[in-house]
Type 4 pilus biogenesis operon protein
Amino acid sequence: MKSSRGITLLEMMVTLAIAAVLLAAALVGMQSPINRQRENEATRELWASTLRARQLSISTNQPVRIVVEENVPRGDGTTRTVARWEQLRCDNDWDNASCPAVGCENTTCRANPECCAGEQAMGQDIVIPTTMNAAALHGLCYMPGSGRPVRPGDLGCMRDSIDDPVALDAAAPGNLRIDFTSGRARSLIMVEPRTGLASILDCSSQAAIDHPVAECTQ
């Protein structure tokens, strides 16, 4: 009669190790669609924010810009990169060439709340996933009254050139890149140079394949 034996410690450790590997693989498989969904949502929220900024710049006769800020404290104790629109305060209310107010050309309203006209003059934070880089939109500004867009990088919103159509044409933002480290293709926020209307292009989409855009390959 054969005697039965129990599982050895080594066999148990091997079994647990295999189970851990299988669980980790399953979690990675579940996380990828979640990350993709977050990237999609943030990209569309950024696009919607540019449309809102344009609309406000026309209706309020004040410049409205998009800012992307790093290391912003969140309610859960973490710090994240976030984006939002900001409607800027002017030095006076009869001349939109006085916008933004002096001292607000190189700072955000988070750093200096006086640069915005109250809490209603700032959009909701858009949390940027860690796999996503939207820095190209930082400083995208819509000019007061006209809604004309000027390229990112200058938080002063072309204050000294508001009545200079040549300078405004030269500052048109073009196609703004959103890059990802998750392996997905780049997306573009495509801003029409005169009207400021924006659209999204996914560089892996059929539209990008049929009509190639330089920023998708550079």
Residues 206 and 212 are 10 Å apart (CA to CA). The mean pLDDT is 86.
